[in-house]
Amino acid sequence: MKFRYQLILLFALIIACNNRHSPKQVVLNSDSIKKDSVKGELGDSLYKIKMLAFALDYANKNKDKDSFLYKSEQLTIDSGSISMDYGYLFDKQHKHLIIRIPPIDTPYVHLTDPISIYLYVLKENRFVLLCSQTVDSLGGLDIMGAYQGDTLRDINGDGCKDFVVNWYSGNGCCPRAENHIFFYNSDNGTVTSEFDLMNTTFLPDKKIVYLMDYGFPGTIAMYKCEWRGIKLDTIESVSTNSSHRNMFDIENEATGKIKTVRGLPKEYRCIDKSELDWFLSAWEK
After folding, report:
1. Per-residue pLDDT reduced to its tens digit, 86-102
2. Predicted TM-score (pTM) of this structure
3. Which of 19, 29, 113, 198 sees the fewest Cβ atoms within 10 Å?
């Protein structure tokens, strides 16, 4: 009986060994990106690695151009998309490359899987990664709870375009529009580490930004802040007066003194309408 069990065990081991598969080699080129090889088997992570490799290969072949735009819903695979911006995106001294890779759209990957965004600078004839962002995409649908696009704009009034990734969290009760900001350094073409702000209205010509807290009306404040380089200083905060309708308490950040005024100061009327309406609904029943 013991000998029989030994034979069974040996037979099982032989079958297991013969059923082993050697790992598949991943060739990072566009021709190898096929639908059948990514569905379920490779998943979203490896899919994005291969798509990034394709994007960099394409960019390297076209880096001598002054600029190019690339956008494809099909690319070389049957399901997927990619977009690229290349050229003197920030200034006339340095070339940059932005790559956006949404998740692969298959039954094996949820539509809430993140979109990946990469920013490169061309240095010594090669692309150097400056920063990357991964945010929820909801399959690229234009609804709340998703990536809201990225922009190049002057945020702090220094005359340089900055890289901003806009996102709106799918979880929460209250306004929660987020800006992930990377300030541009024109001296060497690089960007700073990430600077995050929520519910913002930027006035770069005045080096001012208005912010609103996350929370319910009547419990939150709005802030007037001023840029000093890439540092943000709070000047004052405004909150609704809990005892009197249409009265507001303004606190000076430097002195801590609070004054109560009737009506919201005019300068705060420039804030995004949906956020302002939320803030002013403190007295609504």
Report:
1. 999 999 999 999 999 88
2. 0.77
3. 19
